[in-house]
Amino acid sequence: MIRNIVPKYIPIALVAGALAAAPSAFAQDYPPPAQQQPQYPPAQQYPPQGYPAQGQYPPPQGQYPQAPYPQGYPNQAPPGYGQQGYPALMPPQQIAQLVGPIALYPDGLLAQVLTASTFYNQIPDAAAWANAHSYLHGDQLAAAIQEDRLPFDPSVIALVPFPNVLNYMASNMGWTQQLGGAVLAQRNDVMDAVQQDRAQAYNYGYLRSGQYETVIYDPGNIQILPVTPGLYYVPYYDPAIVFYGPRPGFFVGGAIRFGGGITIGAAFAPWGWGNVGFAWRSHGILIDNHAWGRTWVNRGAYVHPYSAPVHFSGPRVEHHEMHAEHR
Q: DSSP character for 105?
């Protein structure tokens, strides 16, 4: 059942101070509904069992659902994993549900989330550090990461500028671990599911270019890119809405919203932001212009190449006073 595949609370991506998106229509719409493939899932199942009728994803900061760790975590595999810990292979529809909360992220951010989820055990500590240093931004944040010698994988450190994304992942570790397992064991299926979700959101008119992002529509190769390179706006939306046909009178333009922009400059190049995205048709995840090669089989030994790698062998050193951000 769906409730065994996705977390108890379905995310919508949180950011502080959400602003309404202003989507613009493409010159040519996707073929009318009569020419589309069967809906996913069938319209009579809307909303699908297990999705909330309403709700925000994630809730405002400080109000994240405290989803429990899987029983026996981290020494035992959560439900859906085999006896030897190998992820049980999931059918496409279940993977589409799994990636639904993040499928509409900009490509660069999505690539970092997928790879970071494979180091799920590092997410809680990384989220705690990001929250404690949320008053730092840009070059100051990058310098603090260097000075504090954070011991996390670069893919996890890459998400530190997005504390709300890390917070959701840390608060829903069952979902994060299952996502990471799927990325390692079924990457092709995960990427196909993202494209399926994006196609649904586009077909129904929810996903469009606007002031925050550019949507390049090409079946099987739908890209979501920042309007201004390096300036990311995290979308938040309800998967129970944007992947299904709108109800009569529903304003599709307000279904996806965005918060404040987060600038990722050259200072974050050591953590894979130099050139990040996807080769959708060949199922490649590109981090720092290199193909991500970590799989379930080589997960213990694989080290991703970075143009300007930063690896610390010594203990972590805290140089910064931890305090709440002043507003």
A: S
Residue 224 in contact with residue 215, Cβ under 8 Å? yes
Whether the link from the prior residue into 58 is cis, omega within 30° of 0, is: yes
Distances (CA, A) of 75 to 34, 46, 83, 128, 173: 50, 37, 12, 22, 14
Residues in the chain: 327
In 3D, which of 216, 218, 234, 220 has the Cα closest to residue 104?
Answer: 234
Which pLDDT tens digit goes with each residue over 60-118?
A: 333 333 333 333 333 333 444 444 557 778 999 999 999 999 999 999 999 999 999 99
Q: What does the domain layout of the chain look like in residue ranges? A: 2-31+39-262
Residue type, 273: W
Give the position of tokens 């990461």: 145
User: Of 152, 156, 102, whose CA–CA distance to 272 is shortest?
Assistant: 156
Annotate 294-323 with DSSP letters as a single string: --TTTTTT-----SS-----S-----S---
The model's pTM: 0.71
